[in-house]
Amino acid sequence: MTEPRRPPRAPRNRIRGAFATRERPRDFAPGGGLSVVLLVLLSCWGPLSIAAVTVRLPVLEFVRRVETGSEFAAEEALVLDARIEAMAIVELGAVILTGAVFIAWYRRVYRNLLWFGADRLGESVGWASWSWVVPIAAWFVPYRVLRETWRGSDPDADLTATRGWRSGPAAPALRAWWLAWVAANLVSGLGSRIARSAGDGLDGVRWQVNVDVAGDLFTAVAAALAIVVVRDIDRRQARKAPIVRRAIADRNAAAAAEEDGAPAPGR
Question: How many domains is the chain built from?
Answer without folding.
Answer: 1
